[in-house]
Amino acid sequence: MVLQTKHDQGMLRKHHLLLLLKTIKRAGTISRADLAKITKMSATSVSRIVKDLLDQNFIEEVGETEGNIGRRARLLAINPKGALMFGMNIELEFIEIGVADLSGSVLYKEKRKLDLTNSPQTILNNIAEFLESIKNMYADYEDRILGCGVSIPGIVDWPSGKVITSPQFKWKNVEVGRILEEKTGMSVLVDNQVKAILLGESLYGRAVGVESAACIYIGSGLGGAFMDKGEIIRGANNIAGEIGHTTVTPNGMLCSCGKLGCLQTYICTTFLEKESGRSYPEIFKAKKRNEEWAVSLLDRAAEYLALTISNVVCTYNPEIIILAGALIEEYPEWVVSVKEKLKKYIWKIEQQIESRIYYQSEASIGILGASCLILSEFLDSPIAM
Mind listing the domains of the chain with CATH numbers? Predict the structure, then answer.
């Protein structure tokens, strides 16, 4: 009972810290009194948490409210350079590393090709050198760097950072977090790619102020992540959200996970390319030329994605749905066709969800999401007091 109480108190404290940070960011500048009014927290709680955030240089006082009647209130704002977080997004063909500040701005990013023919150890050695090169660029800010968050497709043990399995990479039981920490001397947190993206959206994007949200990612694989009461839903083994591996055709195509007929075999770029023998940019170019095979392939993918959205709505009942990934970023016209098909499948009682489906086209979403792993856990740490 004591342990549960401590856990609940820790969760509540983290929730309040993040709520105040998000509210201050959304407002630009705001007084303590208005923070209490908007968040419905007591003035005492707001003052205590604001003091913590000021002590950590996460926020700063930037002036006073206008007017001559009564005592003027001090205004608060995010201090962008109060802390920096490194974010690393590992994808099938590339790795990108960036640096984000507390305002959610990505100050610098760099992308390099990833050669998966190498062993995981060799790849992680190269990644560590890549991270060190960027870390050296920010040597003057060393005391403000909170650590590095890493997002990767697959099943990740949280919070140890071990990649249990990543079918696209053919990795199993790879200690990504531990290895990168040992090689760089930085705090490193590793999580599933889609969960990291949704966390970033809850702190800086479309899901700010939202209690319940879903993210569907369409890239080299198909993944999902869900949030309830402001917290990422993880399940017993952190596999909650692996919608790409739900079976839709018992005798369908062989998935990279070893099963037949997984949902992602009809939607993600890897399988569109495998089925057509063309790269996905070539498939879309062929569709623009009205080549029947390409039109049919992408129409089927849109159909399955529309079905996926409808099923997610019925299963999780989110306030908003965020669509992200390469196909969303690069081909907005395809996303329009998905939304059109959704009208056939969406439950009438939930038709309003159509106006709450957002397309994430920001190229730095992976970096920002990964960096938020570090920020979120830092605020949950007793050290942050």
Answer: 2-78 (1.10.10.10), 83-197+365-384 (3.30.420.40), 209-359 (3.30.420.40)
AA identity, residue 380 = D
Residue 254 DSSP label: B
In sequence order, what are the residues at sequence separation of 6 or more whose Cβ sits closer than 8 angstroms to the Cβ of residue 175? 160, 161, 162
The residue assigned the tokens 């306030």 is 319
How much is the CA Rg of the chain, to the nearest whole Å?
22
Do residues 95 and 130 lie in contact, with contact meaning Cβ atoms separated by under 8 Å? yes
DSSP 104: S
Q: Minimal CA–CA distance to 199: which of 87, 326, 60, 53?
A: 87
Residue 83 pLDDT: 92
Q: Which residues of the chain carry a pLDDT beneath 70?
A: 1-11, 67-70, 380-385
Sign, CA dihedral 262-268-272-278, equals negative
pLDDT of 10 reads 60
State the number of CA atoms in the 13 A half-sphere of 103 facing the CB. 12
Burial of 235 (0-12, 13-18, 19+ CB in 10 A): exposed
Helix spans in the chain (H): 2-27, 32-39, 43-55, 120-137, 176-184, 193-204, 269-276, 280-288, 292-316, 326-330, 332-345, 365-379
3-state secondary structure of 356: helix
Q: Which two tokens stand for residue 78?
A: 């995010």
Q: Report the chain's terminal Cα–Cα distance, integer Å.
A: 24
